[in-house]
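Structure (tokenized):
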């Protein structure tokens, strides 16, 4: 087995036809609808786990990046939807943080409450707000492991300017989790 010295991944090709990059996503409901639709499409196309995420400029509603779960197809445990969205947003802005000088505030919408890894990355990413549709308990019901995530952790992040909150469309996001289970999708951890 040869050592691997580089890594590369791509969003599935269907993303190009499902995401309107020129649209303005004015409300929380519109922003979350995109994250949940990405999660649904990822299940329907069988291109990864049942999770989607998107990063927006908070004030303008401009879409900056999207992510879907790529853990299984990319052989990469770190490629949760939120991680992909953080990674692609940083590259687009050519900045390791989305909270740099001269940058507008950014926020992440995700189809499911972030796991321990994504919660940590949210702090490093520079987003100011994280809104999630399905709750951690919904993912755990399906058999996914969320890791150590507690209200105390959320308070820690809030004290540093990153607010986590339950957003709209929980039922719709839960339906995507159920769809994944029906399709006997891979439970890649937990
Ligand atoms: Zn995660």
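Design, position by position:
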């Amino acid at each position: 087995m040869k050592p691997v010295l580089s890594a590369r991944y791509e969003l599935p090709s269907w993303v190009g036809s499902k995401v309107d990059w020129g649209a303005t996503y004015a409300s929380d409901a519109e922003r979350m609808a995109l994250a949940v639709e990405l999660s649904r499409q990822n299940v329907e196309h069988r291109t990864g786990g049942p999770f989607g995420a998107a990063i927006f400029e908070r004030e303008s509603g401009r879409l900056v990046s999207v992510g879907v779960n790529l853990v299984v197809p990319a052989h990469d445990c770190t490629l949760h939807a939120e991680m992909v969205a953080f990674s692609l947003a940083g590259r687009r802005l050519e900045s390791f943080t989305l909270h740099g000088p001269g940058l507008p505030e950014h926020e992440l919408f995700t189809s499911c409450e972030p796991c321990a890894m994504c919660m940590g990355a949210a702090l490093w990413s520079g987003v100011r707000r994280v809104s999630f549709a399905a709750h951690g308990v919904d993912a755990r019901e399906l058999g996914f492991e969320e890791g150590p995530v507690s209200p105390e952790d959320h308070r820690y992040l809030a004290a540093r300017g990153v607010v986590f909150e339950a957003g709209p469309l929980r039922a719709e996001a839960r339906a995507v989790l159920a769809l994944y289970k029906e399709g006997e999708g891979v439970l890649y951890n937990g």
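Reviewer-requested clarification: The helical segments are 15-18, 28-44, 71-74, 81-93, 116-125, 136-142, 151-159, 170-182. The chain has a mean pLDDT of 94.
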